[in-house]
Design goal:
Elements lengths: L1 H17 L3 H12 L4 H7 L6 H41 L18 H15 L3 E2 L5 E3 H4 L10 H4 L5 E2 L17 E3 L5 H9 L4 E10 L11 E11 L4 H16 L5 E8 L2 E10 L23 E10 L1 H5 L12 E8 H9 L6 H4 L2 H4 L4
Parallel strand pairs: 1-5
Antiparallel strand pairs: 2-4, 3-4, 5-6, 6-10, 7-8, 8-9, 9-10
Helix pairs in contact: 1-2, 1-4, 2-4, 5-9, 5-11
The structure holds zinc ion.
């Protein structure tokens, strides 16, 4: 009996030493130390043995079981550590590495990119970038920009109106119509900026604007503008021309020229429509093939924005802030960011800017 216990013990020790996985150990435990195992049966049968045998067999059997259980536990720890290490090595995620496949970096919407390009040009010329409220008072959007109530130019800028009762407490609408509306241009910041700062002032105002327009290839009820304002002593129409030449060359290429045509805006006098020499045909109106250039329709010029000298009536609304039309003058201009982006990148439909189609976004990185 004692010999058999010794044999069993060696057999189990060899099996434990040869085991390669924790699953093997469980099989060994059930087979050699389980309820139906031979060693268990021997120990259970001790009472039936010869009294002289009981002591030595019980001692050897219990010792063997204890030693084997301890070896199983030790081997289990070893194997578990190895298995964990393997799993960690296999599953290792280095969060500092790019994903697989590499996730494409996002890109700015072309409108935002164009806005930043325009801002860069003007900050380079010494202008400050300002933003203003999209929900605006009639006074700033129209009245103080020389669109008195009933002025026909108001009709061309129909927009969305907001409940005046929703104004934050403490905001007292200035004189005139008390309408609260979504601004139709970023021009209201002309007056707000002049109220906040005496001359000289050089600002550009990018931002979202609204009109009750349809949503089609060339219109959107939400669109974007950059307004510019330069006021000081001795600022002339020639300065406006030089400034817009610098802008056009920075955005559309160093060969570009601008030309002024008479225009009308209530808050500038004189007002001009500004064209840039066509960058598709070089201003000739003809493509290399001899065909008429469809972009400028053969004219050689493309309209890009409106501008003019600030109307003295506008200074009347900020006279108490240091703007005396006898002493200061200046110019203002306003451009649509959509239009600049459409022209510069040949985008055929303005709606592409708002659909967030990844295929469109990916073209402009
Ligand atoms: Zn052309």
């Amino acid at each position: 009996m004692l010999d058999r216990i010794g044999e069993l013990r060696s057999e189990v020790e060899a099996a434990i030493a040869a085991s390669q996985a924790t699953g093997d150990l469980e099989e060994i435990r059930v087979r050699y130390l389980g309820r139906k195992a031979e060693l268990t049966t021997i120990l259970r049968g001790i009472a039936d043995l010869d009294p002289a045998e009981r002591g030595p067999v019980g001692k050897a059997g219990n010792e063997a079981r204890g030693a084997l259980e301890a070896q199983l536990a030790r081997r289990r720890e070893e194997l578990e550590a190895g298995e964990l290490g393997e799993r960690l090595a296999g599953d290792r995620i280095d969060v500092t590495l790019p994903g697989s496949p590499v996730a494409p970096a996002g890109s700015l919407n072309l409108l935002m990119r164009t806005r930043r390009e325009i801002e860069d040009v003007f900050t380079g010329l010494g202008y400050r970038v300002m933003e203003g409220p999209e929900v605006e008072l009639d006074y700033y959007n129209f009245t103080a920009l020389n669109h008195p109530p009933g002025h026909p130019a108001r009709m061309a800028q129909d927009t969305f109106y907001v409940d005046p009762g929703s104004l934050a407490p403490g905001i007292e609408p200035p004189p005139g119509p008390e309408d609260v509306l979504l601004r139709t241009h970023t021009s209201p910041m002309q007056v707000r900026a002049m109220e906040a700062q005496p001359p000289p002032i050089f600002i550009v105002v990018p931002g979202r604007t609204y009109r009750s327009d349809p949503f089609d290839a060339t219109h959107s009820p939400v669109f974007h503008q950059v307004e510019g304002l330069a006021v000081g002593e001795d600022i002339t129409l020639a300065d406006l021309k030089g400034t817009l030449d610098a802008f056009a060359q920075a955005i559309f290429g160093p060969e570009r020229e601008t030309r002024f045509r008479p225009g009308f805006f209530p808050f500038t006098e004189p007002s001009v429509e500004v064209d840039v020499s066509c960058f598709a045909c070089g201003g000739s109106g003809r493509l290399q093939s001899g065909e008429r250039d469809p972009l400028c329709k053969g004219a050689g010029w493309i309209e890009i924005l409106g501008a003019g000298m600030v109307d003295p009536n506008v200074y009347g609304f900020v006279a108490s802030h240091g703007y005396d039309p006898e002493r200061v003058q200046g110019f203002a201009f306003g451009m649509g960011i959509e239009r600049i982006a459409l022209l510069k990148h040949g985008v055929p439909d303005l709606r592409k800017f708002f659909e967030n189609d990844v295929r469109v976004l990916e073209q402009f990185r």
